[in-house]
Design goal:
Elements lengths: L5 H15 L5 E4 L3 H10 L7 E4 L9 H4 L54 H9 L7 H11 E4 L20 E4 L6
Parallel strand pairs: 1-2, 3-4
């Protein structure tokens, strides 16, 4: 994979923006899950043009992405931002590294072993408690379900699930291990 210095990468982005800005309705910075789903939603209107810029490569052919049995193999490589945490007060001010974040098309979802999970209700409800009205478990789960396209397992898969816990018409395909097309 081609590796660019940060200053040269910024120059390329600036050149692309100058070239395409007039013809682009929306610019999305980051080709992770959220950025790509947003681009897909926006382009449902054929009159809308969207430019997605991603700092990393496309990841095509990288077995550390495509083989979920290699989960963790991409961490600490050129497709991981390798961000350290902030100093942690209750860990003697240590910084933990890496805190894996995908620097590749697909973002962190590309390097997390195909794991899709939601937080616990109390975690979401704390956002509202901290002064963010409407940011709670019920509203966030409803928004998440709107974006989800759940592929239910077949009877022979012997997996228990509650269909009502999932969305079925969104742009982000989810399933239980190997069920999605």
């Amino acid at each position: 994979m081609l590796s660019l210095s940060p200053s040269f990468a910024r120059l390329l982005v600036a050149a692309a923006l100058v070239r395409y800005a007039a013809a682009t309705d929306y610019l999305i910075v980051g080709g992770g899950t959220a950025g790509l789903v947003l681009a897909e939603r926006l382009t449902e209107d054929p009159k809308v043009s969207v430019l997605v810029i991603e700092a990393g490569g496309d990841g095509l052919g990288n077995v550390d992405i495509s083989d979920i049995g290699r989960v963790g193999a991409a961490w600490g490589t050129d497709i991981d931002w390798q961000f350290p945490t902030q100093p942690l007060k209750y860990a003697n001010n240590r910084q933990l590294t890496p805190s894996p974040r995908g620097k590749v098309l697909g973002g962190s979802s590309a390097i997390n072993g195909d794991v899709y999970e939601r937080g616990d209700a109390i975690e979401y409800d704390q956002w509202e408690t901290l002064g963010n009205p409407g940011w709670n478990f019920n509203t966030l789960i409803a928004a998440g379900k709107k974006g989800e396209q759940f592929f239910a397992p077949g009877a022979s898969d012997n997996i228990e699930y509650v269909l009502g816990d999932h969305g079925t018409t969104g742009h982000l395909p989810t399933s239980y291990g190997g069920v999605a097309p």
